[in-house]
TrEMBL record, chain A:
Signal peptide: none annotated. This is Acyl-CoA dehydrogenase. PANTHER family: ACYL-COA DEHYDROGENASE, ACYL-COA DEHYDROGENASE FADE28. GO terms for molecular function: acyl-CoA dehydrogenase activity; flavin adenine dinucleotide binding. Residues 238-386 form the Acyl-CoA dehydrogenase/oxidase C-terminal domain. Its cofactor is FAD. The keyword Transmembrane does not apply. Residues 10-109 form the Acyl-CoA dehydrogenase/oxidase N-terminal domain. The lineage of its organism: Bacteria, Bacillati, Actinomycetota, Actinomycetes, Frankiales. The keyword Flavoprotein applies. SUPFAM superfamilies: Acyl-CoA dehydrogenase C-terminal domain-like, Acyl-CoA dehydrogenase NM domain-like. Keywords: FAD, Flavoprotein, Oxidoreductase.
Amino acid sequence: MSVGLLASATPEQELLLDSSSRFIERTMPLPSVRELAAGSGGVDARYHEAAGSLGWFGMLVGEEHGGGTVSGNGLLDAAAVAAERGGVLQPGSFATANVVAHLLAAEGSRHGEVLARLVAGRARATWAVGDVAGLTPGAGEIVAGEDGGGGFRLDGDVRHVPDAADCDLLVVTAHGPRGLTQFLVAADTPGVQARRMASLDITRRPGAVRFHDVRVGADAVLGAPGDATAARFEWQVGIAAVLTAAESVGAMHRDLEAAVEHAGTRIAFGRPIGSFQAVKHLLADLSLSLEMAKAVVSAAAESLGSEPPGSEPPGFGARDGVDLAHAAKAFVAEHGVELAHGCFQVFGGVGYTWEHDHHLFMRRLAADAVAFGSAQWHRDRLGERIGVG
Amino acid sequence: MRDIAAEHDSDVGAEHDDGDNAAPERDDSAAPEREVRAPAQALDEYRARARAWIEANLERGQASGLRRGDTDPAAIAAGRALQRRLYEAGYTGITWPREYGGQGLGPEYERAFQQEARGYRLPDLGIAGGTTFGVCAMTMLAHASADFLRRHIPRILAGEELFVQFFSEPEAGSDLAGVRTRAVRSGDGWVLNGSKIWSSGAYYADWGMCLARTDWDVPKHRGLTWFAVPVTAPGVTVERIRQITGDAEFCQEFFDDVVLGDGDVIGQVNDGWTVAQTMLMFERGGGLSHGTRTTGASTGVAPDLVELARATGRLADPLTRDLIVRAHVDDVARRALLARLGERMRTDPAQALHLASYAKLVSGVHDPIRADIAMRIGGADAVNWETVGADGACADGAHGDAVSGDAVNRDERPGDSPGPKVAVGFLNSRFMSIAGGTNEMQRNSIGERVLGLPREPSFDRGKPFREVLRDARGWSSARE
């Protein structure tokens, strides 16, 4: 059963979600996620390529680059897939892979070959954004200076980068001489050093990247530095926020589902504990939060994704989509953790055991809550829409 | 707009599997052609005709806002007259069946008319009008006989008959199937005795849709029947109830040997719970599936709270701004939820009644939070304010406004202060958490019917209602 991010899916969307779910169930069910967490290696190349063949990394990319959408709204499709992924705590950063694919698609054919590999799942990409715009306090920032020969040199250390140590490609958002500048950098470029970070969320592999005198050519620049990149940045954060929130929604769905099942089977005082209103009403309230979370995330994806893929950054028309993305992330960041707390209370002692899956969901929801902007950060962005006079 | 405190208990269901089937079918009978898409040209022509009629016949302006405060009889009379003009022109009951005075058109026509009428004054029949069109008539269309519908629906559409709910009782609110108002067979008809309460707007309505017990020797859900009761019938007494806001929209009715006919029965005798389920769906927000779909797109950040913060000089305060954005985020999620529920109810009509509980619960939970935010932004200005007399001079504010309920001088008005509006919002903020089914009832419905959690043990299931009341009197304290 799908986690049901969409109130009603088209037959094509159902097919996409069904094939994605079956793939997950076959190759990376929760026991495998646990094994992966226990080991030191990441997910293997076959998983990634199979995911690519399902279309996971091409939904924000036009067909000319091997991508495509089943509904005409790639972000909506991607959010629905993200929710299925989140339900089984899938490894890898789906959000950043799609952000990078989207950015490269906007470059036309310039990065066609790299993009094709990315879409096919034969290359992996992530986004080193750091604390640009205050997105992640303490994450550090990259500074880009002109190298005198038409290229740039990048310096700095950024942390909290999804899958930093497992990726072939990095998109770096840096402060350059002409304002915010984004670069495409191969992970094996001299001076780039990626390392893993330990994480509360053991189902993911976040890391950090140090840039020390990294030289890149002018052709590594994505888009036009300055205002255009700043505008694009807002949209990128929106995409990452929506996809992260969608993964959270999947995790919320499965955690609640397990709590409901537990409440229906655990007997105390001669009756299933779910028959007590104290438990039933808690679960009903959490279910309301989940429905609201699904609604606001799919509304945000629908709105933000309604621009044609690969288009220029949105102007005024897409303001609603960006704002909805802020609202969706702000809502899910808080209610996801709240739901994990509520489910924990229903599970009782068993939820405190390593063997029970609940802690994996709780860890994930807490980590997602601060990835690509905390609730507070997203509310602050919305607060900027309020006049001051 | 609805019967406060009325709700079912969650006890229908496992044992009364007939209890759940009523709601979903109602759509088709209400608007049989709603699935038929209008050809664009026909719709355009309709829109043009509607626009021309609206321009020639309606005044510009907003609805008069009868929902707040005591309803003025002259305003209601004007509302009825305007309703009749719309009826005669064919702009009421646009999606309702033609044989009952409606137009039998698809929802896109209704939407087109509403769009064209934006900015014009439409009939405002107050709180009873909302109940008549949004709850009672919709329920009738699903369950009443053709004869009943032919008699009443055209008059409803013409503004001649306003219906309110006679649903809750002084001793039956959440446990709605436990009503004790009785209708006893007498000759060809029925004799009604008992009392109903929280019927909004009954004092100016024409009819009440009344749930009465017609069989005491069967379990509580099985011995109920709905009747249409004329408010002015001999034996009906209506008393108004003064609310905490000082308004008196709610009423209590007393029935003393009120004589009703078989033609006044709505639905089947002793099958009233089936009808009640439909009514509850509309109360909770079952009309969602008829509504315009919204994507939840933002319409600015909580404009009312921004305005309030500006008026109270707190707009630059970061904590205030965060409160405003918090309210906005919830607003956006609530709007998106309603759109989602409408969609889910369309694709899963069997679950519509229970899904509607989410729409109800979201208001019950979030309205008080939002009102609290407004109180925090309002600060002292939401608690105390100066009033202005009829002559514009400052008045002694110690008495005389709707919030105090002590209307010594109705001519006084609250100047420019945002206080009264915030204060009334605070006083009214628990309305949706109680009226039309408490939060607890919605949580039961969601818990048991959507999530599939086990049922609460019950002490009245399968028991003749007569015995239920007797046994409950023997309930003991844990300390005995």
